[in-house]
Amino acid sequence: MPDKPQILVVGSITMDMAVHCPHLPAPGQAIRTAANFVTSPGGKGLLQAAAAARMGGNVSIIGCVGDDLFGHQLIDALQEEGIDTAAVCTNSTAPTGVSIILVDSKGENATIVAAGANAAVTADDHLFTHEDLFKTADIVLLQLELPLPTLRAAANLARSHGCMIVLDPAPGMQGLCSELSHVDVICPNVIQAELITGKQTGEERADMNIGLDLIAQGAQAAVLKLGPRGCLVVTGQGEFVRVPPYKVDIADTSGAGDAFTGALVTALGRKHDLATAAKWANAAGALACTKIGTLAALPTYDEVRLLMADNGNT
């Protein structure tokens, strides 16, 4: 395996509770024929940290859990992935965050999040006390599941130490503040891209316009996650690279975006250009769709490399 890039994730840590049902419920509807219920470590921060670690990154995470059963289980899960948890705080007054995920028969999903201890992550208590992690990081990876002031401070700290900043703007936000729009790479999915820009995706020219809008807002580059249409790379020089999808049998899409982002940052940390990194990310996202669950579905470096080789993308 290639050298391990230093990746710092500032993000959420939750316990996922997934229910598999024939279709997503309409308002007021009760579905009594759900087929499966699974608990699994989750949160965008944890999952993307685990995805990067499985792809060969040397990963640390800053976050917070409750002093409860879920919290202790999640710290154990992070450590089992080889992730440095020294900067994960245990909060005695707030419960561990939870995510409730509904997955339909086609593998599509809907998620509800109760932030819990994630809402207690602050710059003073959690970032500045672990500034040494920013000093050694090649890439700082952020999402939008922590308090906005904390994320703004994390972006500023990363800049001050010369880190590349990658933002996965999940779960989405209508517009971004300056600190979070001026990042090195932003990698939204379709829904998040539409929320941020107020524009609609769906066909190539619309995708390109959204990418250019994200660049105009301050990002140095954008990678649009387009699901079954692959992804689109847009650079600050106005260059476009469409990366086609990998064809796989879909079981569950709920971990795909996190697998994509974890692979993207690891490839960037290994100094791949953005288009090449997007190929690794597409492959990882595709493989995650072939398994049920979130953490359990995240692929390893060798699995991704094999899929790429089988498709002529070594």
Q: Sketch the topology as an H/E string, one letter per element.
A: EEEHEHEEEHHEHEHEHHEEEHHH
Overall pLDDT level: 93
Q: Write down the overall geometry.
A: globular
Name the quaternary structure.
single chain
Strand order of the largest sheet: 5-4-1-8-9-10-11-12-13
Return the structural class: alpha/beta
Specify the number of helices. 11
From the N-terminal CA to the C-terminal CA, the straight-line distance is 14 Å
Please summarize the sheet with the most strands: 9 strands, mixed
- Work out the number of β strands: 13
Using only C-alpha atoms, the radius of gyration works out to 18 Å
Q: Report the β-strand fraction as a percent range.
A: 15-25%
Percent of residues in helices comes to 25-40%
Poorly predicted tracts of residues: none
Based on the model shown, name its key terms.
314 residues; alpha/beta
Describe this structure in words.
By secondary structure, this protein is an alpha/beta fold. The protein has eleven helices and 13 strands. The protein has a nine-stranded mixed β-sheet, sandwiched between helices. Strands 3-2-6-7 form a four-stranded mixed β-sheet. Strand 12 (231-235) and strand 13 form a beta hairpin. Helix 1 crosses helix 9. The protein is globular, with a radius of gyration of 18 Å. The two termini are 14 Å apart.
